[in-house]
Structure formats: C-alpha cells, structure tokens
Amino acid sequence: MIARLRGQLIEKMPPWVLLDVGGVGYQVEVPLSTFEVLPMIGEQSILLIDMVVREDALLLYGFACEKEKSLFRLLVKVNGIGPKLALAVLSSLSVDAFVQAVREKDVTLLTKISGVGKKTAERMVLELATAVESIVGVLMVTHAPTLAHDPTDRLVRQQTIQALESLGYKNAEAIQRVDKAWQADLPLSDQIKNALQVSL
User: pTM value?
Assistant: First the structure.
C-alpha cells in the first residue's frame, strides 16, 4: 500500500501531477487545494497518498496535508460519492469550511459544489456529522511555495478550462466561468479558484 511519495515533480496539469520517485513516474490526481501549493517543475515534492485498487486500474490520490487526506477518505465512504466528487469537494471548499458547513447543516453551500445535488449534500451532513470532528485539529504538512506564473495567458486559460472539466463542469459552463472570472497575469491556481467561485 502506497501511503506517501517523495520525489521530483515532473509535470503539472490539473488535476494530475507526475512525480518521479527513484526513476519511477507516479501519476497522481490531486485537489486544487494541493495543486496550488506544489513546488515548481523539477523541484522535490511530498504527497500523502490514498491508493484505490480496482480490477482495471490502480489509482493514486495525493494530498498536501493529513486533513485533506482524512476528509477524502471520509467522503468516499458516503453513499453516492466517489473519488472524483470527493476531489471536487476539496477543490471547492477548504477542509475547515467543509467541516463548518456540515456542523451548521448548510446544504445550500454544499450544493454549490459541482456534482453535488441536494440529496447528496443532505447525505454528507447526515453521515459525516460526527465523523468530521475526527479531522479537526489535524496538523498541516508544510510544503513548498505556490505556483509560478505560466508562460502565456492562452495556455493558462486552456489549462483552467480543462481543470474545471475534470471537476465535473460541462465545457460550455467551464468556458463561461473562466471568461467571467479571468484576470490577466494570474497564476493557474488563482485562475481556477476564481472560476470556481464566480456566480453565473
């Protein structure tokens, strides 16, 4: 069971990153919250890993801190929530914000997450009401500085749209969100975050 990877960051294309560990390349899917604190290409990075084994694939999900990994594990236990939707939750809300939403039974806030309908939000609140308390106070893992700027606005725009699509948005809505939230010269992580938060 792979629980942690430390190696050279070879590629970053949200939601995927490629980590070279001793000459072996590991493709790891990460939430936006982890993506935006990754170091630059070529630098060393550490990811906490949750490994999902399926008949046709071995999937790795990486996280910058124990809080994120713990919440991911709790989310995938909820009926109707798979790894993709769990990553969308972590990409849309911080762990603390999610815990607060569950505590306050804020279904409205949870349904703003792409792919989360009212019934799914209600299941989160019901099934995780007690469980989320176990991750409160878990220490954060320190990582390297935030992303550097990408070469061109055109490339960043394309990557932002792809990131939103990977989180469950249709292409048309992803483009609409990016166009409305776009601010020139911002790094990719900020462009994604702004696009997720914009109101249509």
Answer: 0.68
